[in-house]
Amino acid sequence: MNRILIIAGTLIVIVVVVIVVRNVVSPTEEAGTAGVPASAPAPQQFDTTGGQEMKPRWNAPEGQGKGDADGAVDN
Length: 75
Description:
Radius of gyration: 34 Å
Largest sheet: none
Number of strands: 0
């Protein structure tokens, strides 16, 4: 009788440990996936109209291309 209680207690402890380890290693889908929110935020929309005219820099003399026509850079 004493052996049966020890074996049953050991089996119960093993089952509980397996259940706990399994839940820690692979949580259920209800909790989410690896810290990723359930729905991603909508991408931001930026106004790209009325911008600066694009000019190729290889036509500019040495020292120009980073600022005005005289090469000055506004800070």
